[in-house]
Specification:
The protein contains 10 helices and 18 strands. By secondary structure, the chain is of the alpha/beta class. It has 2 domains: 194 residues, FAD/NAD(P)-binding domain (3-Layer(bba) Sandwich); 149 residues, D-Amino Acid Oxidase, Chain A, domain 2. Strands 1, 2, 8, 9, 10, 11, 17 and 18 form an 8-stranded mixed sheet that branches. An 8-stranded mixed sheet has the order 5-6-4-13-14-15-12-16, with helices on both faces. A hairpin with a 5-residue loop joins strand 17 and strand 18. The longest helix is centred in the N-terminal third of the chain and has 25 residues. The structure holds glycine. Glycine binds next to loops.
């Protein structure tokens, strides 16, 4: 479909804009907000912006694609806590807290089931090293005021009888849930459509600036799309849009993750009751059981540029590690193997909100937490688009922390 068929005329959007306090749009612009990237983060940004009354468009050849098509959908603020990431923990928890209301609103609007499952997580240890690592994590969680409970191997197996007899102990985290990212993304496409978001199904080629302000983009087929504000939300591709000045170009890189999907036959259900995960020989492995019988096994973490090849080695390692945790998985049909690209950032945290270039905002760099951070990202960006400022909870994630001056001020 050509992008011109989707272009919104100002008159068609008048009623939707009445409540907005959007910045004045330059004459001839086609939207208040143009979101570059129709993955999960671009879609939630567009939906929340439209809900605030902003005339919003998304440019993406295939809205609803991207890393969320591969992601397992763990909402793992507590089990994925890392040293030095306390500030990110605050944002992760804020987003996890929003999930019940966010999914209820999205389901009401779209009539779609999102596969949001409040099933909790069990992180287990297979040997003495794993157990020491998990004990450290438990101590860090306790110092951070988080809820988790240490269990013996026997207690772990009582909760999850399919676990290997060799499991030495584990952490029960009842607050780390899951959602099906494919369903979530499909619902966000519908929510955008119902909220009047316009889709331009083309690649964004180049950012357009005028008088030191972002004023729109040009698509690969040469169509110019003007906007009052542009949000760059193109996942791992966010650093590649031409025309973005170097000083505000997001420092994101692709981090490959290979993920497997298996199917639990009805006769074997419930195979697992909750997400089960471990660090095996230094690599993360997790098994995420859906109510519909899908079992997602992930994920590798590989710094290989733009490569999305599914490799025999990647599949082998995931199956080997998952088999050590839950030997019965070798009985299950393997239904899909796929690789996606996480948008990694220098501090593993997202880049949210206004940049030093007026009119250009970022919503990218979510790395391992894109699905978890979806609700808070949508709300933070909508707030920034309307007021020009990030809300308090999102301020530490300003892209300005990576500008040359800010980096010079940081302690070494
Ligand atoms: N958050 C899980 C992953 O990125 O593999």
């Amino acid at each position: 479909m050509s992008s011109s068929t989707h272009r919104t005329t100002p008159s068609a959007r008048t009623s939707a804009r009445t409540s907005a306090r959007a910045p004045a749009r330059p004459s001839g612009s086609t939207s208040d907000v143009l979101v570059v990237g129709g993955g999960i983060i671009g879609l939630v940004t567009a939906w929340r912006a439209a809900r605030r009354g902003l005339a919003t468009a998304v440019v993406d050849p295939e809205p609803g694609g991207g890393a969320a098509q591969v992601a397992a959908g763990m909402l793992a603020a507590v089990t994925e806590l890392h040293y030095g990431e306390q500030t990110l923990l605050g944002l992760n928890l804020a987003s996890a807290r929003r999930y019940p209301e966010f999914t209820a609103e999205l389901s009401d609007l779209t009539g779609q089931d999102l596969g949001y499952r409040r099933c909790g997580t069990l992180a287990v240890a297979l040997d003495a090293d794993d157990r020491a690592h998990l004990r450290d994590l438990h101590a860090l969680q306790q110092r951070s005021g988080l809820e988790s409970q240490w269990l013996s191997g026997r207690e772990c197996r009582r909760l999850e009888p399919m676990l290997a007899p060799g499991v030495r102990g584990g952490l029960r985290v009842d607050g780390d849930h899951q959602i099906d990212p494919r369903r979530l993304t499909a619902a966000l496409v519908t929510a955008c459509e119902r909220s009047g978001v316009v889709f331009h199904r083309e690649w964004a080629e180049r950012l357009v600036t005028a008088r030191e302000r972002a004023t729109g983009i040009v698509t690969r087929d040469g169509t110019a799309l003007a906007a009052g504000q542009v949000v760059l939300a193109a996942g791992s591709l966010s650093g590649r849009l031409a025309g973005v000045p170097d000083a505000v170009r997001p420092p994101v890189r692709p981090v490959k993750g290979q993920v497997l999907r298996l199917t639990v036959p009805r006769a074997y259900a419930p195979f697992l009751n909750r997400t089960v995960r471990a660090v095996v020989r230094g690599s993360q492995v997790y098994l995420v059981p859906r109510e519909n019988g899908e079992l997602v096994v992930g994920a590798t973490s590989e710094e290989l540029g733009w490569d999305t090849t599914v490799t025999a080695g990647g599949v082998y390692e995931l199956l080997r590690d998952a088999h050590e945790l839950v030997p019965g998985i070798t009985e299950l049909p393997l239904t899909e193997t796929r690789a996606g690209l996480r948008p990694g950032s220098p501090d593993n945290a997202p880049l949210l909100g206004p940049t030093e270039l007026p009119g250009l905002l970022l919503a990218t760099g979510h790395y391992r937490n894109g699905v978890l951070l979806t609700p808070v990202t949508g709300d933070s960006l909508a707030h920034a688009l309307v007021t020009g400022e990030l809300p308090e909870e999102a301020r530490p994630f300003t892209p300005r922390r990576f500008t040359a001056a800010a980096l010079l001020e940081q302690p070494v």
